[in-house]
Amino acid sequence: MVEAERMRVSVIGTGYLGATTAACLAELGFEVIGLDVDEAKIDLLRSGKVPFYEPGLDELLTESLQTGRLHFTTDFAEVAEFADLHLICVGTPQRDESGAADLKYVNAAIDSLAPHLTRPTVVVGRSTVPVGTAATLAARLAALAPIGEEAELGWSPEFLREGFGVEDTLRPNRIVIGTDSPRVEKAVRALWQQQVDEGVPFLVTDLQTAELVKVSANAFLATKISFINAMAEVSEVAGADVIQLAEALSYDDRIGGKFLGPGLGFGGGCLPKDIRAFMARADELGVEPALSFLREVDAINQRRRARTTDIARQLIGGNFAGRTVTVLGAAFKPNSDDIRDSPALDVASTIASLGAHVTVYDPAALERAREAHPELNYATSMLDAARGADVVLLLTEWAEFREANPEELATVVAQKRIVDGRNALDPTYWRASGWTYRALGRQ
Length: 443
Ligand SMILES: NC(=O)c1ccc[n+]([C@@H]2O[C@H](COP(=O)([O-])OP(=O)(O)OC[C@H]3O[C@@H](n4cnc5c(N)ncnc54)[C@H](O)[C@@H]3O)[C@@H](O)[C@H]2O)c1
Hints:
Layout: E1 8-12, H1 16-27, E2 31-35, H2 39-46, H3 57-67, E3 70-73, H4 76-82, E4 85-88, H5 104-113, E5 121-125, H6 133-144, E6 151-155, H7 165-170, E7 175-178, H8 182-191, H9 193-197, E8 202-205, H10 207-238, H11 242-250, H12 271-285, H13 292-315, E9 324-328, H14 343-353, E10 357-361, H15 366-372, E11 377-378, H16 382-386, E12 391-394, H17 399-402, H18 406-410, E13 417-420, H19 427-432, E14 436-439
Parallel strand pairs: 1-2, 1-4, 2-3, 4-5, 5-6, 7-8, 9-10, 9-12, 10-11, 12-13, 13-14
The chain binds nicotinamide-adenine-dinucleotide.
Nicotinamide-adenine-dinucleotide binds at residues 12-18, 35-38, 41, 89-92, 105, 108-109, 112, 127-128, 158, 160, 162, 269-270.
């Protein structure tokens, strides 16, 4: 733990980002209060239960609660009284068909907090917002706070990855703070002093650049995934193998191998909505052509879902009606129970809508999936899910599925047919066990 000055910190919005942030900051030694408008979520957190799946967070939350450094509330007056630094971590979902970000939660958080700010205070946004939002919120904060301009707002985008949230928060790869206020910069520096001392880059920018860092990082990552998936489309018709192609590309360190895995593509609560919100904002700013390539990035990504469905349909003879289909995976990625814009569930519900009896299994996301997609069937183990299947689709690359034993699975299915939507299995091994194996981007 650092010996630096200890601020009292509030974390407003305790979802994936906020709950992880609150527990990690308490672990680092800060006095932390987490606030959410969702009382059920706050009750769970108070009782030491994380309302979602994030490896390592349960233990950290329990430890932090025991130290007495971490509390939860639903009362804005209490957090205003308690903390000197407020971190805004509320959601910024996609608004509608326009793709623009819905800012009602960030606006509401500022509107609820500001009237209680009667002493000089720093508010730092961590949610992902369209460029230009923070400047508007800074003015809104100063106008509504009794302390006026002494309630200052900066923006510090968050780069944590679900599934690695604790690790990424305790050891971020960079810290960016958008502000021109020495007080805001000092507060954020104090928050991450230990990390900065350990060599984590600390970048101070203007508000707009800080906002852009996050959305452009996500746009780049989405583009890289869709790039290799476009190569998968070409490979399929040209008779090439996209896995070998990706490996050969990865040895060029200007390209690198990360985010170059061909498959069903990206989903989740960040990349899809962030690239759409980025395009919508570019449109508003009159620079729509600059980001028009992201439309294609999004389209390539959606096409992978359709292609996966097509491959499965071909495998069972052209018609899903009355067939039994197993989907392995519901979360948008492994080590998470987040099903927001999950490619796996999208494909599963498309196949169900075409008349198949679809059974889904996921190690962590079953409950959420069941709630969101009651039209699907669910099983509590891979083998149960695969019983009687005419085709099995692997759509989220959990280790449990990567390590599946083809001979064991063969004992329960009706037909040994598998679509490897994540290129997670060894085709030679599965074919040797008598399976018909199909994957995206390969022959
Ligand atoms: N999930 C991630 O891995 C991740 C990573 C980086 C950035 N982000 C960004 O962080 C933000 C939050 O994402 P998330 O995944 O944690 O979302 P989430 O939906 O899991 O959590 C948002 C929380 O905010 C709460 N909330 C809504 N309005 C509120 C208000 N007025 N006051 C207090 N709480 C309120 C909700 O009840 C919810 O618990 C988004 O902008 C997202 O793009 C997320």
